[in-house]
Amino acid sequence: MIIKVCGMSDGQNIREVESLRPDMMGFICWEKSKRNVSVKPSYLPEVCRVGVFVDPTIEEIVEKARMLGLNRIQLHGSEPPEMCDTVYQATGLPITKVFSVNDKTDIEKYHDYEDLTSVDLFLFDTKCKTVGGSGEQFNWDVLRCYDGKRPFLLAGGIGPGDEQRVLSFSHPRFAGIDLNSRFETAPGIKDSKQLDKFINTIRHEQNK
């Protein structure tokens, strides 16, 4: 199971979280977010670095990709398929396309992105006014209607106490989870002890 910790911003906190061996760490590059990374942190992790953007310009993506040494781009807005292809051509980086979910109709939007070479991973998050990071969960049962080919990450309000719910969730394309606001002590600062407990539980149960 892929474990991605998103909304990182502080160099020391990045070091602490990296020691827990997540597979990906996300950096939010959107000015309206309270977790926005406007300057390069004092430390950047060795794990896969994901830049999270919301309806950006190509210039913004290229600038942040260079500043943060990104390995992957996550498009979290209403970017059309052609934008995904343009970003891929400009950066050469694989793309995670996010779908904000309230009901089945939101899931079905994946059809427009299914055959893109630029997009190799989907992410399903809770639809909210804040465009992610709300700490709220959507009804995971609606994912039963997803019958696409792309693997996906599950996001939206996953936090301490949700270990067994995550472990019991089943879908042939379920690839991992995205953790953010419910593990924070402040915007952009993660509680490494809570994360350690959660990640260890998930990995221990998986390895049984």
Give the topology, please:
Elements: E1 2-5, H1 11-18, E2 24-28, E3 48-53, H2 58-68, E4 72-75, H3 81-91, E5 95-101, H4 104-107, E6 119-126, E7 152-154, H5 163-168, E8 174-179, E9 184-186, E10 189-190, H6 192-206
Parallel strand pairs: 1-2, 1-8, 2-3, 3-4, 4-5, 5-6, 6-7, 7-8
Antiparallel strand pairs: 9-10
Helix pairs in contact: 2-3
Rounded mean pLDDT is 95
So what's the overall shape?
globular
Query: Strand portion, in percent?
Result: 15-25%
DSSP summary: helix tally: 6
Approximately how much helix is present in the residues?
Answer: 25-40%
Structural class: alpha/beta
Structure description:
The chain has six helices and ten strands. With 208 residues, it is α/β, with parallel strands linked by helices. Helix 2 (58-68) packs across helix 3.
Describe, in short, the structure shown.
With 208 residues, the protein is of the alpha/beta class.
Question: Keywords, please?
Answer:
23% strand; 208 residues; 6 helices; alpha/beta; single chain; two-stranded antiparallel ribbon; eight-stranded parallel beta barrel
